[in-house]
Amino acid sequence: MGEKIRCPRCQHTKSWSVRRGKRRCAACRYDWLPRALPLRLTPAEWRRLVRWFVLGHSAEVIAQEAQLHRQRVLRALLLVRQAMARDVPPLFSSLVEVDETYVGGSWRNKRRGERALGTKRGRGTTKQAVFGILCRGGQVWAEVVPNVEAKTLLPLLRQRVTAGSVVCSDTFTSYTGVAASGYIHRLVDHSQTFSDRQGGHVNGLEGFWGYLKRRLAAKGGIRRERLPLYLAEYVWRYNHRRLSGQEQVKTLLKLLQS
């Protein structure tokens, strides 16, 4: 069965054919041409917009350089991040590392009031838990989670890692039951390096967590409901870090057309 056609505006999967080869979304009634770039932007406009986005510029700079209205750029960037969120790595196998971290809650974000992650004006900030999996090849998958209890993390592990794989983790109670779930559980020994062990842990999630927190801090605080999209963006960037900027632009344009 082929991939379902999604509405580029709301991502709904039910639609019907209308005039001139277009489709109409059953949820938001938006008409679009499948395989065409959304928002009625020309291919040249999308290439300029995505190129400046790949370079890490803000919406204001992108609007100026792409010669587009800022609100139109913001809508376009939302679609780009949604496309990144759909481009997840295949199931991990063999040797993986699992870990969790917390984002938000810094003093800097407290000064930003309602814009800060998970805050209300004058009430401080709340840290948000994120769970991640990394395989030997350096591919990462991460998701915002409500808590780091075993009943929350183990189902996510079963969804993303094939049975029989070696799962490496710290000595947290969150991973109680990993061995009973059909995996080989190994504890992380941070005193070893990747080259002087065989079958040891991947030892890469700490680097990704540092990368993620630096990029989020550079945003100066984001709304809690937008965190999954920004997380998906930085997971995608990390997984495609070996591609050139031009290759990343081409990949993103293909995702937007799918």
What does it look like?
The protein has a five-stranded mixed β-sheet, with helices on both faces. Strands 1-2-3 form a three-stranded antiparallel β-sheet, with no helix packed on it. Helix content is 36%, strand content 15%. It has three domains: 36 residues, no CATH class; 82 residues; 128 residues, Nucleotidyltransferase, domain 5. The chain is of the alpha/beta class and 258 residues long. It is built from eight helices and eight strands. It is globular, with a radius of gyration of 20 Å. It starts with 14 loop residues before the first strand and ends with a helix.
Number of helices: 8
Order of helices and strands: EEEHHHEHEEHEEHHH
Kindly report how far apart the N and C termini lie. Answer: 15 Å
The CATH topology of the largest domain is what?
Nucleotidyltransferase, domain 5
Largest sheet: 5 strands, mixed
Protein structure class: alpha/beta
Kindly provide the radius of gyration, computed on alpha-carbon positions and rounded to a whole number of angstroms. 20 Å
> Helicity, in percent?
25-40%
Number of discrete domains = 3
Number of strands: 8
Mean pLDDT figure:
84
Shape: globular
